[in-house]
Write a structure and sequence with these properties.
This protein has 297 residues and is α+β, with helices and mostly antiparallel strands. 31% of the residues lie in helices and 23% in strands. The relative contact order is 0.09. This is WYL domain-containing protein.
């Protein structure tokens, strides 16, 4: 099928073909039922869509007779050009499936964020490893050690408010860590078995959920009702449940004063962490404003 023929398809057809490609590229497989469930179409229509996609990307999918699913072909080459942020939105929130070329903002919108270069093929290796519970070899650029080769067992993607990272077990350090996606130069799937100690359920910081209480900063906020309205507080308190592995990022991103006596000065500190004891034992609190290292003990 030529690009001209592709452009003659309806938007609904393009959406379904784009969904097929997204599943193949980043999950590694797709079944007819995936299409039926996502779009509410009949099985026969799903079969036709898969056949149409095979016409436009002949090497992109193979049929696994044992698993009865279509799998990513060895010579996969993307047909649709998806922006990295839309891919991450689809992976993390389950929407944004539509093929992007026809989408337009309904009102004028701008974002004041830095754009980081992201290799989508590298990302697809990580997401397929997460789906398969497999290990990955990556080339990673760290501030402390420069470019190194590591083996990790990824199990989740996470957005810390400033950038995306992958959470996984690092075989080099023997611990669970975060790896910034833009710092990963290359990635490839490994055939080595994943040990029990490398599984997601062994990551204490990821599985621990802290219940935090944020309030308007007692010293820096002149009109606390403004902050209460802005954050939708209930009786002056914003109660949240957050993974321990994400707590430090959250405190830094929102400029939450984590001192015991709300002593941080500055117009940027609108919030104060009222129940500091809820974060005792959280390992990434070095990122939290005012949470002194000696207090962690």
């Amino acid at each position: 099928m030529s690009s001209r023929q592709l452009s003659q398809l309806t938007q609904a057809q393009r959406d379904r073909l784009a969904f097929i490609e997204m599943r193949l590229r980043f999950i590694g497989e797709i079944s007819r039922q995936d299409l039926v469930t996502r779009f509410g179409i009949q099985a026969a229509a799903a079969t036709r869509d898969l056949g149409t996609y095979k016409e436009i990307g002949p090497r992109n999918l193979d049929y696994d007779t044992k698993g009865k699913v279509y799998v990513r072909g060895e010579w996969f080459r993307p047909v649709f050009d998806f922006p990295a942020q839309r891919v991450l939105t689809w992976l993390s929130q389950g929407f944004g499936d539509s093929e992007p070329l026809r989408l337009r903002s309904l009102v004028a919108c701008e974002q004041s964020t830095l754009s980081a270069k992201l290799d989508l093929e590298m990302l697809s290796v990580l997401t397929r490893a997460i789906h398969k519970k497999a290990a990955v070899e990556i080339s990673y650029r760290a501030l402390s050690s420069g470019l190194t080769t590591r083996e990790i067992v990824p199990f989740a993607l996470a957005d810390n408010g400033q950038r995306w990272h992958v959470r996984g077990y690092d075989r080099r350090s023997g611990d669970f860590r975060d790896f910034a996606l833009p710092r990963i130069a290359d990635a490839r799937l490994l055939a080595s078995a994943v040990e029990e100690c490398e599984a997601a359920d062994q990551d204490i910081q990821w599985n621990r959920v802290a219940e935090i209480e944020l309030v308007p900063h007692p010293a820096n906020v002149q009109h606390p009702d403004t902050i209460e309205a802005e954050y939708g507080m209930d009786s002056g308190v914003l109660r949240m449940r957050v993974r321990a592995a994400m707590a430090g990022y959250l405190m830094r991103h929102w400029n939450v004063d984590c001192t015991e006596d709300h002593s941080l000065k500055g117009a940027e500190f609108h919030l104060w962490l009222r129940n500091r004891q809820a974060l005792y034992g959280v390992t990434n609190l070095v990122l939290a404003p005012g949470y002194e290292p000696q207090e962690k003990a």
